[in-house]
Amino acid sequence: MKRYDVAVVGGGPAGLAVAITATSRGLNTVVLERAAVPADKACGEGLMPSGLAALDRLGALPHLDRKESAPFVGIRYVQEDGTTAEGLLPAPGGLGVRRVALSSALVARAREVGVELRERTQVLSHRRSPDAVMLETADGPVEARMLVAADGLGSPLRRAEGLDVEFAGPRRFGLRRHFQVAPWTPYVEVHFADGVEAYVTPAGARRVGLAFLWEDGVVEGRVGFDTLLARFPRLAERLAGMEPDSQVRGAGPLARVARARVADRFALVGDAAGYVDALTGEGLSLAFACAESLGMLLPDALVKGATHEALRPYEACFQRVFRKYAWTTQALLMLARRPRLRRPVVRLLGKAPWLFERILHAVVA
Ligand SMILES: Cc1cc2nc3c(=O)[nH]c(=O)nc-3n(C[C@H](O)[C@H](O)[C@H](O)COP(=O)(O)OP(=O)(O)OC[C@H]3O[C@@H](n4cnc5c(N)ncnc54)[C@H](O)[C@@H]3O)c2cc1C
Questions:
Q1: Ligand 1 atom with least separation from CA of 251
Q2: 0.90 cut: is pTM over it?
Q3: Structure letter (DSSP) for residue 203
Q4: How far is the CA of 107 from the centre of ligand 1 (A)?
Q5: By three-state DSSP, how is residue 32 classified?
Q6: Contact predicate 302/27, CB 8 Å
């Protein structure tokens, strides 16, 4: 049986980014993805400047179908009474990218650099031998010197490795759908209501994505796309009569905690490695940053036997990047959950755009 250097489970943005980076550094890499690619997924689809720069470094940007994307210049908060605060992102700004187009670009780049991509291949279990990891799939076993789990929020591999930690805080969920309408603003708009946020991302010349985030138990009755939209009368009015451009897709619970990112011959990356919330729109940027760091470390780590110790620099890099993301996301969540505090703070930021911009630049830099 062929033995790969690296087997990546999950062909989402994180898995493909690790595979591209590792293969570009000479490793023989296979990606095992249970779905067909390119794949759609519930996502707000806003790529922050650092994520955009990572996509460029990965060599995937030239493969991106620009018709399936739209640039945005900043973030605008919109409150119930119509008050707003807006700030510009650092140059070159962000890009709203339809998820299928992002997946297509990463898949094309992965194939270009020589990644072996097996779609419709679900990994069922894994076990270690002294010098490798054996993966069981419906199509037979796969052997590799190193296993990278990029299998998303629920990560069965994180659980199987005993790295899952129960999250004790509030359970938050997300839903998204697209509409055929020209973006009415060059900003990503985050609309606040009690217990729910809606964010609108331009994702094409005639497409906007609308994503809702809410906390379990805060929204009464049956939660659905239309009931959530009804909580935002301004958005409901704007979108009345507009043709939907996608199916409703959901995800959650969002917050996930892992005890550690690495074990012998094993690493977690992307949402599988830990996630706080989608409210700051940083999941993709975080996934790319960590995936690149892991992919660059792997050749050296494999020479050292891919031990827990050899993979430790990746854990350190993850901690550094994640800490900042977690801190800012928790701060914004705290505000979102306390409308009486959030309203004056957003009003203040509206009157002092320089302050909002300074905060934004510090967060997304
Ligand atoms: C509502 C919502 C809005 C968001 N908005 C934004 C935003 O605006 N900007 C942003 O940057 N981020 C956003 N995010 C976060 C972003 O979508 C994620 O951070 C990103 O998708 C993480 O990528 P990933 O590759 O880690 O996981 P995923 O994209 O979930 O990929 C995991 C892959 O693993 C595969 N898989 C799982 N198990 C197996 C198995 N056993 N065998 C084989 N394959 C398997 C799955 O099929 C899947 O393709 C949002 C998330 C949500 C839920």
A1: 53
A2: yes
A3: -
A4: 15
A5: strand
A6: yes
